[in-house]
Amino acid sequence: MLAFVLLTVLTAIRILGRNRLRAGLTMLGIVIGVGAVIAMVSIGEGAKAAVAQRVASMGTNVIMVLPGSMTTSGVRGGQGGAVTLTISDGMELKKRIPLLRDTGWGKRDVMQIINGNKNWNGTVNGISPSYLAIRDWSFSSGGAFTQQDVDTAARVALVGQTVVENLFDVGEEPVGAIIRIKNVPFHVIGVLSPKGQSSQGSDQDDIIFIPFSTAERKVFGTQFLGSVGALFASAERSEDLAPAVVQIREALRIRHRLQPDQEDDFMIRTQVDIGKVQESTSETLTVMLFAIASVSLLVGGIGIMNILLVSVTERTREIGVRMAVGAKRRHIVIQFLIEAVTLSVVGGCLGIVVGVLGARVTTVIAGWPTIISAETVLAAFVFSIAVGLFFGLYPANKAARLNPIDALRYE
Amino acid sequence: MAVLICCEDIRKIYRLGDVEVQALRGLDLSIDSGEFVAIMGSSGSGKSTLMNILGCLDQPTTGRYWLNGVDVAGLRADQLADIRNRQIGFVFQNFNLIPRTSALENVQLPLFYRGVSLREQRVLATEALCRVGLQGREGHYPTQLSGGQQQRVEIARALVASPSLLLADEPTGNLDTESSREIMAILDQLNKEQGITIILVTHETDIAAYAEREIVIKDGHVLTDRRARSVVPLSRPEA
After folding, report:
1. Residue A43 to residue A172: CA distance in whole angstroms
2. Which of A86, A369, B95, B101 is found 20 to 30 A from B183 (Cα to Cα)?
């Protein structure tokens, strides 16, 4: 049987080789279909990976707790309107919940920053020292401030790349410089490594970090000492995120003395939640791709079926001869199926080449990241075999059902 | 001599729309193995139908047909294919070779479907082509061969499976006298030297004269059945 299949494959290649133009045109549908799918999947995967990278740039296994809305006399204050979270919440959470590796907090505002004759309006974020580790910030020069700086409300600052670009001349060393935030002089002690866009699309490098206490007392001014803009926590493992969220919620509800019928006065977000939003976008893209792929492969498959039906008619006498010398129905079925699969597989392979080239060209010309995975290529290959089998089945059966006498007499 | 073919009361009815055509009307026939039989008859006499049934390409509507002691009537299509493959060789009038396929590969075909190894297919097919005098033409395509040569390829293809029965349906119908003589010489030789039973359908009396037995079919049954050896009008080359 193996020898039979092997020889039939060779025969099929020869038969298709005789009608190169026809075979080529027939394959075109599959080539375009598979090529388009490969190219678009690789663009989609590239985009997905870029998004994943952005989500990862938040830090590792990060949980964010934001203040909720506050209702005053029936007027709801909107997200983050309440001043419900405090430093002591953050410290308490770390103590109470062993799943959390660390907690940190921050409070941000947009302020004018001045260096010499340059100024820039950037986000100033007063943070606990633990914040940097939780959010995976690293330094391109200099270093972080310490707990001692927080305790003494030292006027030290860490600057992001965007701030550096706007406040300093090219080649000027920011570390050691004195900048003014809201006219308070700060000593720059570190420059942060760039992180790029956040998952929401904002520039994460447009940032200045200063000790929380300094921000509270010397820059922002605050009504409630110890109130924070957001709490951050990190878990050891991603599986810990969900139980940690439940425990944080419980702990905060108790601390905030909320009655069972009261809403939470805070919101908890994890990286997983943020990732989900992005995933649903790429799922839409995937569905669309699948639709395009199905249509083009359907058209390609119909092309194959059409050409095989022509071939069966043209070769009726040949089929008759084969039957007369002892070909069984299954031999005839296999012969035509192999011809169909040969067409679709050769088309599929060409399509893979076209798709990979297309993806490369997209990267070079449009600058979009593309990723070609082995799974995609394999799936395309398997799919083209399936298309050949499916659309070859009808013509092959038609050939096998021929009556040998009629086939032999066919003119 | 053993009975190779035994037909009993074979009837074949075709339906063309509302019209019933009785191609064979209760035909009885017995052929021993090793015989060289010519079947003659005018067109419409039912001889082609008979050939199809004898060749297991078609089934009788009623009646029994034993080939080599096996009741063929009622076998499934795949079983018939097997019988055609192992026991019957066909030589057609219109050189039914597979186009754009070499002579050797055409001859290999029955062995290919039998599942013989490729090496053995080659050896046997080359040998069969030698036997019909086509050594050196293995790689030729049908279009590169003359009518007589094509017919010899067909004989080689029929032979290669070492069948017990060779059915030749007007094998010389499209050939000139010289080629016809060559083809008939080969068939005669196969019959005499290898004991292959040959059934030959023909219009021409001089071709029928090669056979030892002449059966005339008319209106779907046997009209005459003469077992006489007439003088061969054409000289036969010595083997």
Report:
1. 39
2. B101
